[in-house]
Amino acid sequence: RDVNIDRIVFNGSTMEVMGPTFDEQQVPDMPDIYSYFDSDDSLKGWTLNGSAATDANIGLTLSAGGSIVSDKRFLGNYTAEYNVANIAEGGMAGAIFSYTDDENFGSMVFDPAGQKVIITVTVDGEATVSEYNVIQSFKEDVRFDCTQSIQIEKNESTYTFYMNDREICAIKDSALAGGSIGYIA
User: Fold this and answer.
1) CA distances (Å), 30 to each of 3, 33, 117, 161, in order?
2) The pLDDT value given to residue 89
3) pLDDT at 6
4) Is the pLDDT of residue 75 over 80?
């Protein structure tokens, strides 16, 4: 039995199908690293800062100020995809990228109260912060009590940031060379 399913995406509250396609499609390669963080065993290969809990149904819950970073480093170009769910009221959570140490890394964090994405690039301990209003990309308020997707593409000296497949911004000539990926709360 053949199942013909094309990719489904959401444009606001409208569901769209990326197709139709009738030809055989290539099965995507598995990512270099991934984890559902559904058990304590799933934390192998990751460095945890702060406290966290794993749950088979929920995944990873990080404490405020906590982070988890992959032990694998990416030195060239890469694409990283993250899923962040149920950000606590008044809290912020998101992704870490190009982490080499606490003095050199970037983060993309959701601020539900401000309906913003905050991108911070820290080089030699000096942080540069940029804020982007998500309403400009989505034309409506975004619900942060459900799962949100982050994609970060590093291509040479340019980082492009996406939220739910919509481009939020691009940063060119970043001083970050590459590194590990992770999550931050």
Assistant:
1) 20, 8, 28, 21
2) 76
3) 82
4) yes
Sequence-ordered strand ranges (E) for the chain: 7-11, 14-18, 46-49, 52-55, 59-62, 67-70, 78-84, 93-101, 104-111, 116-123, 126-133, 148-155, 158-163, 166-172, 180-184
Q: Are 157 and 172 in contact (CB under 8 A)?
A: yes
Q: CA nearest 48: which of 36, 60, 34?
A: 60
Range 57-60, long-range pairs (CB < 8 A, 24+ positions)? 58/85, 59/85, 60/183
Q: What letter would DSSP give residue 179?
A: B
Query: Cβ distance 142 to 168 under 8 Å?
Result: no
| Residue that is written with structure tokens 């309403």 in the block | 135
Task: Tell me how far apart the alpha carbons of residues 40 and 16 are, in angstroms, rounded to a whole number.
Answer: 37
| One-letter amino acid for residue 140 of the chain | E
CA pair distance 98, 104, nearest whole angstrom: 8
* Least confident window among 88-97, 132-141, 148-157: 132-141
Which DSSP string corresponds to 152-177?
EEEETTEEEEEETTEEEEEEES-S--
pLDDT higher than 80, residue 60: yes
- φ/ψ region of 161 (left if φ > 0, alpha if ψ in -120 to 50, else beta) reads beta
